[in-house]
Specification:
Blueprint: H1 6-10, H2 13-17, E1 19-23, E2 29-30, E3 45-49, E4 53-62, E5 75-82, E6 87-91, E7 105-116, E8 121-130
Antiparallel strand pairs: 1-2, 1-3, 4-5, 4-7, 5-6, 7-8
Amino acid sequence: MTMFSSRSWREYPQRYRLEASKFKKSGKTYFPPRSIDPETGDTEQEMVVLPDTGKIVTYTIIRVAPGMWGDQSPYAIAIAELTDGTKLMAQMTDVDVETVKIGMEVRVEFRRIQTEGDAGVISYGYKFVPKWY
């Protein structure tokens, strides 16, 4: 299994700071960032930080999880539309999976994703939590 070094964490600002590319011609925002707008071919862009709130547009509940996440099941994976219209997929946390529903307001939080290997290397990323949490 591949280890995540602190160097690689710093090389992925979109993952850890929710940075996305917003293209000048179309005004569309893409996450993760893209070099070229797939609709217009535009390369002129600016980096923007995504908002940290949104609403669930769809979700699924994982009841039989892969080995490394087996102790977390059942858990929900959701796609949320953030307040700027960008869609983002993440695991729901701090919520009973039976209460997750379309339209639920969520907040994006930086959390531990997994611990790897004998050395216990921790990798971080974003997860959704209910907005009221």
